Amino acid sequence: MDLVFSSTVKLAAAIAARKISAVEALDAHLAQIDAHNKAVNAVISLDREGARSQAKKADAALARGAALGPLHGIPFALKDMHQTSGMTTTVGFPPFADYTAKEDSPVVARLKAAGGVLMAKTNVASLLSDWQSKNPLFGRTSNPWNLERTAGGSSGGAAAAICAGMTPFDVGTDMQDSIRLPAAFCGVYGLKPTEHRVSLAGAFPDPGDAARSVRLMSCLGPLARSVDDLSLIYQIIAGADGRDTDVAPVPVEDMPKLDLKTLRIAFASSFPGFPVAGDISAAVDNLAGQLQSAGAIVEEAKLPKLDLRDDLRHGGALIGMMMEAAQPGPPEQPTPVSRWFEALARRDKSILAWDAFFDSCDALLCPVAMTSAFPHCEPGAPVKVDGKDQNYWMLPAYGAVFNYSGHPALSIPYGQDRDRLPIGLQLVGKRWSESRLLAIARAMAPLTGGFSRPPNY
Known about the structure:
It is built from twelve helices and 17 strands. With about 450 residues, it is of the alpha+beta class. The strands form five sheets. It has an eight-stranded mixed beta sheet with strand order 8-10-9-16-17-13-11-12, with helices on both faces. A three-stranded mixed beta sheet has the order 1-3-2. Strands 4-5 form a two-stranded antiparallel ribbon. The longest helix has 21 residues, at about 335-355.
């Protein structure tokens, strides 16, 4: 059994059946980190002793017949933004370099309660504010497929670590494609759930116990190497927690089994005014053709009558207002409350338009980002797409549309481009329908091919 590239589900089954021990699983992942992290720089802190102690306790519990959680003995890493007791949470920001939370966030607590063994933190963009994972504390994360290319951001360390076999899963944040874009760049799966589906409590270091300002558009979601793993982690972390009052008490359902022949899939190889690489738009068209041949009802999407570029601008303005509220001390010119409500009313129109769109299809297939993993560069520098310079800030556009609307979306790997870099495609569904969306992705797996192990790992 290849421990470091086995799925979370298979690792858990092997530990439960006592085919391997939790300590063996941990040691294999630590060895993989030791062998490859120097080049990739995905893992930025390790708790070897704490993880080993927990792994030994997991093995002892199994030996005495204790009840097992779904992650019993599974080692895992977390993006360096979750508040964790006993480990620093820095978000790559020097003022937080030594910050250690007094308690775990609800998401961390749930993963541990399910039996998971937290061993490491993964690198991020400083303050989670870029689509490359680089910061003054820990430097730059590279893509395991090509070290000259970015792993994406802000969950780039998470995606790269999963791709390189350093952790079976991670949980990222996604306010503007920050789970899906790095998942696509590294050839792994990543899910952005419906807004307010997973608690944001403790999702960012808060040494001063300040009022939480990020209340919209940002989501926590899993990254992994299979749809089944996404589903497992999603079901553990989703749902009301008693701390984040915005989380809706919507039941978290099991992933159903679906037949492609019963599905209606809309596809869009690009959005109006959004650049996209030819290899990526061709991949959308190719998969749409495969789905049609497999018996699904497939049709070119009649997108909502929205100015999607304008939606991106309004989404950016909403983020700006939240960030303004997060600054210490009163702003010089505070945003009038009326502007906040006007912005929410404008957003409501987009949400309702996409809700109506999904009344006529089960899912939308489209790009995750305008390009595959691009060479390391300074933030804001033009990014070449098919040889033409494109605006850096359009990198997350295809994903950010659904942060603005709040709909669940996931990145699924689908082959490689002409530079032998992974292509990720986006699958979007109805709000509160994550389990069905994941089931659609699983039904597509025989066509998409799933995760591919990068060379030399």
